[in-house]
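<derive_structure_tokens>
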Amino acid sequence: MDTNVFRFSRELKQLVKDGHIRIALDVSRADFFDSHALGILVFHYTNMSKENRNLIIINNNSDPQAYMNGLFESTGLINVFPVITNKEALSSC
């Protein structure tokens, strides 16, 4: 497993374990997410949802050609994850 994916997994797992009710993940500047990283997101999103907790994705990159926009669109995850376009919108989540 890639070192970045391992670190991402470990850090997200720790936030979940610490009992945070809401975790916001800003992917606006991400230029790559492999299947492992997507699996980590789906896993934690599903488990947090079962516990009435929220994993929210922030993506303020409005370019439809941007990597993360295309990834979420092509995988259908745009319809699964709550994706907001700025941190100020967190108050409504």
